[in-house]
Amino acid sequence: MSTAGPPQGAQHRSAQREGTPVPPAPALAVDGLAKRYGETTVFADVTLRVAPGEFVAIVGESGVGKSTLLNCMAGLDHWDAGRVLVGGQDLSALDDDARARLRRQALGFVFQAFHVLPHLDVAQNVALPLMLLGRHGTDATVAAMLDAVGLQGLGTRLPQQLSGGQLQRVAIARALVHRPALLLADEPTGNLDPATAARVMDLLVAQVRAHGTALVLVTHSEAAAARADRVLHLTAQGIADAQG
Ligand SMILES: Nc1ncnc2c1ncn2[C@@H]1O[C@H](COP(=O)(O)OP(=O)(O)OP(=O)(O)O)[C@@H](O)[C@H]1O
Ligand SMILES: [Mg+2]
Questions:
Q1: The total number of structural domains that make up the chain
Q2: Nearest partner of 214 among 28, 33, 74, 59, judged by Cα
Q3: ABC transporter domain spans which residues (predicted)?
């Protein structure tokens, strides 16, 4: 479960000397990550790389730690051993503020339970990441994003006036509006009927493919995992290519 080869920096330097193309830094690198609650190990020795623009699905039994792992990747949870690098930046080396800044700039996160703010309308929800980045004149960007996820004309609705599938599209629009290099999605279609889930997956995959966004998708859905470039299976012992 270890990644063979010299450290990234050494690889880059020797590739440059030989005139071979330099591989891009991974969008996400996780090395020997372990998470425990007291005496209970949730997972140990999780090592993986996600290339820029790559779509990786993570599957595994309920309770094995998929959401915990995704939260660690976003620097939203603590771990007990190992490290997480987002766009080459080691999260452990950053203080809370720097971590929050990196998260705002480089990451999008789609939660299973939408986490749409109920008192903001659809357009305000989608505009939130841009506001946090201090960007101005974002109306056109938000409108284009709503268009891209098929919610044109619904910007002034409140979340309670939307269906589950529409709410999930708001969450996806919000996670992608600032064009992060990496999108982390936790069961984004878990609350939807199969036909709506398939449409939401179509849209999610189309968006990440169009913009070269790396995607890590946690899912129990075989149909959703089948769309990925790679499927990884999380167990208490670590993470490996899913068999069959
Ligand atoms: N604060 C906590 N204290 C102790 N154990 C916890 C805590 N939070 C989560 N756990 C445990 O950690 C394990 C991993 O939980 P997690 O939510 O990551 O699983 P999951 O793989 O996402 O499951 P599901 O597929 O059902 O969403 C579970 O066994 C859970 O009970
Ligand atoms: Mg979970």
A1: 1
A2: 28
A3: 28-244
Does some domain include residue 86?
A: no
In this structure, is residue 36 part of a structural domain? no
Q: Are 178 and 129 in contact (CB under 8 A)?
A: yes
| Residue 132 counted as domain residue | yes
Global pTM? 0.89
**Residues listed for the chain:** 244
Domain range for 210 is 54-75+105-241
Mutational test site, ligand 1, from 58, 66, 69, 217, max ligand atoms within 8 Å of CB: 66
CA–CA dist 41, 186 (Å, integer): 21
- Kindly state the average pLDDT of the residues 209-213: 96
CATH of the domain at 65: 3.40.50.300
- pLDDT, greater one: 213 or 194: 213
pLDDT per position as a tens digit, 15-59: 556 677 877 789 999 999 999 999 999 999 999 999 999 999 999
Residue 176 within any structural domain of the chain: yes
